[in-house]
Specification:
Elements (H helix, E strand, L loop, with lengths): L1 H17 L3 H28 L25 H26 L3 H29 L3
Amino acid sequence: MIVHHEGAIIMANQALEQAERPEIVELANAIISAQEAEIAQMKEWRSTWFPDLPETTGMAMDMGPMEVPDGDAPFEQRFIQAMIPHHQSAVTMAQDALQNAERQEIKDLAQEIIAAQEGEIAQMRQWLRDWYGIE
């Protein structure tokens, strides 16, 4: 999840540089704030619980897009259309953690990730409908 969150932060930073809509800038700031805090927490747990475990590059799961693609569509549309599948993959990973994690702290974080990212997905889908007529 750390690697996945880092990808979301990359995309959110792209939004801070390129987005014109204040809603996207606000979402990008929220993503950066929440996911940097979650990364810090996960790194702390990892170093405390598994101090001798070598670094890894993440799970062998589809993480969705890790950056906003170039294209002819407005940046905000491309951002949303990249971030929705990215968030959906986080929900999938968090659901896997709920089923398989032994530590309650991981299960609690997984539930928080699911709630936050499902809410953001719903908001982004609404923006696609409202701004671009895309279902």
